[in-house]
What we know:
With 372 residues, the protein is of the alpha+beta class.
Amino acid sequence: MKTLKKLAFAMAGLLALFASEAAMSAEARIKDLVEFEGVRANDLVGYGLVVGLAGTGDGLRNSPYTEEALQNLLERLGVNVQGEQFRPKNVAAVLVTAKLPPFARVGGQVDVTVSAIGDAKSLLGGTLIMTPLNAADGQIYAVAQGPILAGGISAGGEAEEVQMGVPTSGTVPNGARVERETAFNFDGLGRVRLSLRDPDFTTARRIEEAINRAYRSPLARMADAGTVDLDLSQSRGQSPARLISAIENIRVEPDQKARVVVDQRSGTIVLGADVRISRVAVSQGNLTIRVTETPLPSQPNPFSDGETITVPRTNVEINQNEDNKVAVVNENVTLADLVDGLNALGIGPRGMIDILKAIKTAGALHAELVVQ
């Protein structure tokens, strides 16, 4: 028990050390805090066929669209299959998805994800046939083709089947080649907006001040909690790309709300460094109820017509530990103080979750409580 307490106090000391170090070195690059207007990926999707499967493809009777697509493909290749009866089991209909990265040029390659949409059992060992990928505007921006890497496996017999992973989904590394570029002239922009990933007025103000201080001119202006505008006319002749390259490496200390995140499934608790608690008393009960069943057989007298019966015997015990401690938490408690106090009571993660909920309900926890 003493060893466990020493370990708990040691962990609390490490948490306090990490919290103090994080407070001193919490600066992040602007590129890690914002998104630059126009610098974004575009989603692509296409419908295609996977061939070469080892009998794990679609059942064509259950997936008529697979048969129709296969007939169209063969006819485009000069093979007439009208009126023919064929039921191949090594073909599967799939949806192909990809992301066209910003500033992608014709001839570049991107990864694609292939997912079965029929009753195929596995895409392992299959090859994706040439599939055009369309964007939201209906235009073809890439064409995908290549062997599929499927990470799952499925095996079984008549009485049992075992499956690991998802064998009906896979990837084709560098499987799509860019055929069309997005019409975006970044070099001709006069203004660029920085969109904060986590909108916060203080963080936006610090970004504005850091940029203007670095360039000694009113280059940046905070529009709201999630937007900082850059006036490229103040860039002293630098191109937008060169200016953004310099700005994105400026370091800023982001601000954040005091927050406590609780994951009830795993018992994980994450407390921000700015969490504060008003003066409150904390006690954890220890009530144990034990129910024990000890049935006894009752036999009839010898040479009688009676029957042996079982007499139920139930023993109920209620134990309450009167040695529980009551901790008084003072005002403006820091993260380290809170952890020290809860560990001193011998409270585990599950107990801490209940205590934090109760403190929040009492109005003494001055932080956002996020329960997942």
